Amino acid sequence: SKGGYPFYMEKEIMEQPEVIAETIEPRIKDGIPDFAEDEIPDSLLKDCDRVCVVACGTAMHAGLVGKALLQSLVRIHIDVELASEFMYTDTIVDEKTLVIAISQSGETIDTLEALKYAKRNGAKTLSIVNVRGASIARESEYVIYTNAGPEIAVASTKAYTTQLAVLYLLTGRMAYVRGIYDAGRAREFARELLRVPQVVAQVLDRREEIHYIARGILNAKDVFMIGRGLDHSILLEGSLKLKEVSYIHSEAYASGELKHGTIALITEDTPVVAVVTQDKVQSKEFSNIREVQSRGAEVILLMKETYTLDKGTSWAGIFKLPAMRDEFMVMPASAALQLLAYYVSLDKGLDVDKPRNLAKVVTVE
Ligand code: M6R
After folding, report:
1. Which end of the chain is more exposed for a tag (fewer CB within 10 A), N or C?
2. What angle do CA 281, 285, 287 make, to 5 degrees?
């Protein structure tokens, strides 16, 4: 049942604090991320030279966040490949490559085929799957389950954030076993990760603020979503979510790339959603926002609460995200973007849980 909510999507968004906690907590031992119960040997995480994520849709977007995390905190080379392209682009994988397949259903045919290709080429394989015993889990050497519980809405929400939770745990564990983090730093990382459920809950408690802001894109034909670094990675997902459930054309753009073409499309009729949570690119991001505002765009701003805004700028909406360490801001910001897409769909009177032309499990190539 929908637990009193009008749609599964809302129920599943609201379940996130709990299912994220259930995914993280059993995997922290002595304060340090630990996959002993999943039977993941540390050698798997230590001996690889490269990581390659294969996945589709939302799961691929989770992989992009994983890429940013592993690259910057573990300093390992990592690629994220669309599973549907992986085999046809002669991707290079070998016995020193750890291939990670990410899939909610565990039955997506493209991801399954990519995994088989990786195995044929000698790679080590690990999957991050939600449905117990699914084909992708069975086909890979190692599996880590997300404890999201059944996800019914076609638009993935809690599966995504629990996939992210696993990727944080992997980052923490890899940094530790590869000697980049000592026990103290690994514990610090895990402590911040353990705060995620409560911080996401704070965003969900304020969902009516996002409902109000969502009116700014209700009648839009096109929406642009801009951000840099991790903010860009989560906007790709936020944009997919909006497209899927509201049928509004939306594009996520790395802010710095705007002036290489797309800014030509920004007018007073294209609302822009901007996410600003990363200290190191904050000031560049705000200047990109000023550029779109000067083309007449109305901007909905999701920003870390600690940032201050120039006086005199007008905004179509502002949502202040509870602060965490920068690399964890992905979590509260993603919850806010899910709610934004949800409320647009709800207020348009659409069938939120069953968008046209989409299936929950994609078993054709
Ligand atoms: O079951 P999977 O995670 O392998 O599914 C992958 C995609 O089909 C899925 O994430 C799809 O993009 C969702 N509709 C997104 O909301």
Report:
1. N
2. 125
Helical packing angle, 16-24 and 158-177, nearest 10°: 30
Ligand 1 pocket test: pick from 53, 100, 108 the residue with the most ligand atoms within 8 Å of its Cβ. 108
What is the C-alpha to C-alpha distance for residues 288 and 226, in angstroms, rounded to an integer?
A: 9
pLDDT at 233 over 90: yes
Task: Retrieve residue 337's tokens.
Answer: 């973007």
What does the pLDDT look like over 173-215, one tens digit per residue?
999 999 999 999 999 999 999 999 999 999 999 999 999 999 9
CA dist 306 → 91, 188, 341 (Å): 42, 21, 25
On the question of pLDDT at 362 being above 90, the answer is: no
**Distance from the alpha carbon of residue 360 to the mean position of ligand 1, in angstroms:** 7
Report which protein residue has its CA nearest ligand 1's atom 9.
57
Please state, in angstroms and rounded to a whole number, the distance separating the CA atoms of residues 125 and 24: 21
DSSP-assigned states of every residue in 131-193: STT-HHHHHSSEEEE-------SSS-SHHHHHHHHHHHHHHHHHHHHTTSS-HHHHHHHHHHH
List strand residue ranges (DSSP E) for the chain, in order: 28-29, 32-33, 50-55, 77-82, 97-103, 124-129, 142-145, 222-227, 249-254, 272-276, 299-304, 317-321
What is the DSSP-derived secondary structure letter of residue 270? S
Residue of 156, 236, 353 best suited for mutating to test ligand 1, as the one with most atoms within 8 Å of CB:
156
110 vs 82: CA distance, rounded Å: 9
User: How many CB atoms are closer than 10 A to CB 191?
Assistant: 12
Query: pLDDT per residue over 119-149, tens digit each?
Result: 999 999 999 999 999 999 999 999 999 999 9
Kindly report the pTM of this predicted structure. 0.97
Q: Which residues line ligand 1 (CB under 6 A)?
A: 56-59, 103-105, 108, 111, 154-156, 244, 358, 362
According to DSSP, the residues that pair with 29 across neighbouring strands are: 32
